[in-house]
Structure formats: C-alpha cells, structure tokens
Specification:
Layout: H1 6-18, H2 25-35, H3 42-55, H4 59-72, H5 78-89, H6 93-106, H7 112-118, H8 124-139
Length: about 150
Amino acid sequence: MNPNYFPAHAELGRIKIDAGRAHETASHIQEALQLNSPEPNIHVLYFWAGLAALHIADDQAAIQWLLKARQTNPTFHLSAGLLAVAYLGIGEEGQARASLAEYLKAAPNFSIAAWKRSMPTPNPIVAKQRERIIDAWRRLGVPEDKPVVAKN
C-alpha cells in the first residue's frame, strides 16, 4: 500500500530466504536501506542480507554484509556465528575459528540441533542451502547438540 515503507521491503527480502529465493533478497534490502531513515535496528537488515548471501554461497558478499551488521551493533552476536561460515567458505580458517569463538562466548549453548530448531526448513531448496552452513559449522567443531541442564 505504501511503496516507501522500508520495513515491508526489508521483510520481503527476509522471507525470500525462507522461500528458496535468497538470490532476490539483496535487492529488497538495498531498497529498504535507500528508503530507511536512520534507525536503531539497521544491523538486522545487514544481517539478513548476509544470511541470504550465505544461502546462495556468495561468501564474499556475506562477509561484507555481516561485518556491517557487527559494526553497527557489536552486541548482535549472531553475525559472528555466520561470519565463521563465510570465512571458512573463502578459505580463511583462522578467521572462521576466531569468529566462531567470539560467537560461542556469547552463545555457549549453541549447537547444530539448536539452530535447526530455530530455523525450520520445510522448503527443500532452503534445506539444501542450509546444509552448506551446517557443514561448515561441523568442520569448525560446533557440536551436534548440547545436553540440556536442568535448573533448580
């Protein structure tokens, strides 16, 4: 209804990842960024663009987007977890391990199973794309699952 409503463009870009059309995400994020007035959650838009780039195996673009996300909000640790995947994708294993260590420090209970629970993938295209991400984490030593510790 309002073609200048930047959140709609951003959200459209994000849902294209889950629809198996991650290759279309960047243009929507770019549109949102052009329409966006300065806002405190811009790092999320950068993160979504980085996530989409990982889904289409464009690791260089993923690094650029995810570094922007981290620079605009250093406390948004999800960027570091995905940066590890992108760095490994370009052969920078040392950088990948450093990014993963940074992420695991903020999210010590992270596991592949936890990520799968938080990112359901009923779309077979997306499932295949996410296997690449999961494989990278496995190669970096992310555990399959962490035992749940009962709190008293």
